[in-house]
């Protein structure tokens, strides 16, 4: 799907996607204004920019996916606005020299703290990994879910009725695909290099 | 080799086991809309947290309400009609109506003053007529008018009444708040751009800022929470 079709079919006035955004915006206009989203067109634009990065060729049931993704993007904008409001509140009273720090706090990065993801990053990964699943076939989703559930390889191989060597190959392919997806979203961490 | 590898999928899995903080709206949207593809651990993560956290359960309810309303939502007022022609018609009627009122009021004054004021009124009308866009209602803000956003607060904006025409300086009054509350008045234009802002702990504030002719909205906040939205006109 090209971006013109995406806009005309799902985000133009009168479409179902626009109705979702209008309803959302009428409810949270005040909070969204904190992130310079001062009218509904700004929100539509942000949602469009996010969705236009999607490679729809690999997405199953595109229409169903787009409607769900529009809702998700709206909520993401609300989270961002709430987060930004909190950051501004935290930084109230700081001088100009602290401006770099303010900007830094708004940049999403994947980092570990004592070998674990921080809360914010973990929640963000939860969202992105589940969006990623929409572009996988049913077997790949099963495999990814098994890995998330930390099941043993032999157990996974048994449930998927494949041998362990084939399973290792599939796991490697899936991890490369996921790492590529996250890199394209701007995630950067040396751990990702392991998959390439 | 793969089992021994430390990677972020493992870290993600550990996060699901140990996370105790509140869920974001995005995460709740995943739970609402992408639940079919969730892994067992992800399902348990949501279920465990939602069962023990009333705040996140309430937000989940809120998210579901917002998503369920969308197919049935009708325009909230006459100003919600999308037609640009209709909006400009409303703006034109507003300009002519207000201009006429001023004109006839001025007729009652003495003749010397009348000549001067008629000229001013003409200028006002001309100026307003040149900028009809400044009088076009903002659909989103219109939806907030006449309803108390924080219904439990009991705070009500008394003056100006909705749709009043104001002259400089602008005084706003409200009642019903608790002592110790910090009130903020935010004046925005019909593009929702902030034009003036002031804070006080009393129930009245006067804003000393000249505003150009147009339709303006006033937002009353109590302790940084929006309480009520009103609107007023500036003709001169």
Structural class of chain A: mainly alpha
Taking Cα atoms only, what radius of gyration of chain B do you get, to the nearest Å? 26 Å
H/E element string of chain A? Answer: HHHHHEEHHHH
**Which CATH architecture of the largest domain in chain B is right?**
Sandwich
**CATH class bucket of the largest domain in chain B:** Mainly Beta
How many beta strands in the DSSP annotation of chain A? 2
State the helical fraction of chain B.
40-55%
Proportion of residues in β-strands of chain B: 15-25%
The major beta sheet of chain A can be summarized as: 2 strands, antiparallel
How are the strands ordered across the major sheet of chain B?
Answer: 2-8-7-4-5
Largest sheet of chain B: 5 strands, mixed
Write up what this structure looks like:
The complex is a heterodimer of chains A (196) and B (236). Chain A has helices spanning 3-11, 16-32, 40-52, 62-91, 99-105, 119-133, 138-148, 153-160, 164-184; strands at 112-113, 116-117. By secondary structure, chain A is mainly α. Chain A has 2 domains: 1-107, no CATH class; 115-196, Arc Repressor Mutant, subunit A (Orthogonal Bundle). In chain A, helix 1 (3-11) packs across helix 3 (40-52) and helix 2 (16-32) packs parallel to helix 4. The longest helix of chain A is centred in the middle third of the chain and has 30 residues, at 62-91. The two termini of chain A are 29 Å apart. Chain B folds into 3 domains: 8-69, no CATH class; 79-134; 139-234, Immunoglobulin-like (Sandwich). Chain B has helices spanning 8-18, 25-33, 40-52, 54-69, 84-107, 111-130, 139-144, and strands spanning 156-159, 164-166, 170-175, 183-189, 194-200, 204-207, 214-222, 225-234. The interface between A and B is large, with 60 and 54 residues.
């Amino acid at each position: 799907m090209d971006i013109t079709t995406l806009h005309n079919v799902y985000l133009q006035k009168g479409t179902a996607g626009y109705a979702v955004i209008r309803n959302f915006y009428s409810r949270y206009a005040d909070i969204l204004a904190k992130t310079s989203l001062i009218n509904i067109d700004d929100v539509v634009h942000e949602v469009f920019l996010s969705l236009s990065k999607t490679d729809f060729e690999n997405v199953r049931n595109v229409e169903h996916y787009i409607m769900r993704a529009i809702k998700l993007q709206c909520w993401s904008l609300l989270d961002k606005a709430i987060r930004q409001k909190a950051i501004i509140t935290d930084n109230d009273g700081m001088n100009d020299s602290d401006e770099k720090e303010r900007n830094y706090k708004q940049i999403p990065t994947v980092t570990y703290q004592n070998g674990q993801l921080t809360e914010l990053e973990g929640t963000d990964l939860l969202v992105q990994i589940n969006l990623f699943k929409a572009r996988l076939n049913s077997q790949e989703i099963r495999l990814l879910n098994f890995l998330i559930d930390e099941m043993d390889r032999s157990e996974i191989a048994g449930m998927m009725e494949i041998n362990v060597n084939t399973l290792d190959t599939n796991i490697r392919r899936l991890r490369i695909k996921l790492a590529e997806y996250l890199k394209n979203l701007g995630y950067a961490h040396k751990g990702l290099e392991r998959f390439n | 080799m793969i089992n021994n590898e430390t990677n972020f999928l493992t870290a993600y899995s550990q996060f699901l086991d140990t996370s105790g903080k509140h869920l974001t709206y995005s995460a709740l949207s995943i739970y609402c809309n992408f639940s079919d593809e969730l892994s067992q651990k992800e399902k348990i993560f949501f279920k465990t947290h939602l069962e023990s956290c009333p705040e996140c359960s309430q937000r989940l309810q809120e998210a579901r309400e917002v998503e369920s309303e969308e197919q049935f939502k009708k325009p909230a007022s006459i100003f919600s009609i999308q037609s640009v022609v209709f909006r400009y018609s409303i703006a034109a009627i507003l300009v002519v109506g207000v201009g006429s009122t001023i004109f006839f009021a001025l007729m009652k004054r003495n003749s010397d003053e009348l000549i001067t004021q008629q000229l001013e009124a003409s200028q006002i009308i001309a100026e307003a007529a040149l900028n009809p866009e400044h009088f076009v209602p903002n659909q989103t803000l219109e939806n907030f008018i006449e309803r108390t956003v924080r219904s439990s607060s009991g705070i009500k904006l008394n003056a100006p009444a909705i749709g009043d025409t104001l002259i400089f300086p602008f005084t706003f009054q409200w009642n019903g708040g608790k002592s110790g509350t910090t009130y903020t008045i935010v004046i925005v234009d019909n593009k929702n751009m902030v034009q003036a802002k002031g804070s006080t702990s009393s129930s009245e504030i006067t804003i000393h800022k000249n505003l150009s002719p147009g339709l303006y909205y006033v937002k009353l906040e109590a302790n940084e929470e929006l309480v009520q939205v009103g609107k007023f006109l500036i003709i001169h």
